[in-house]
Predict the 3D structure of the following.
Amino acid sequence: MIRYQQAYKKAEKVIETCVTPDHVTAAKRYVDFFFTTYSTPAKSDWPHRLYDKTAYWDTPQAVAQCYDTLLYKLITKKNEITT
């Protein structure tokens, strides 16, 4: 498995190369894949998971920060393309 830093750099490149709204949609899937690859499903009780979406994943702090940054860059790119 590649380190999350390398996957983060690749996700940045995927976002940077978007030129159409369809590319942005695909990049969002890639960013979500980054998140699920470097996180693990939480082991909380089922009823609790229904009401608390944060209970779905156990994510290292660094991966969560990278994911937030990627989402911000994705939104910025989407706004750049559509305006």
User: Anything to note?
Assistant: Residues 4-82 form one domain. Residues 28 and 74 are 7 Å apart (CA to CA).
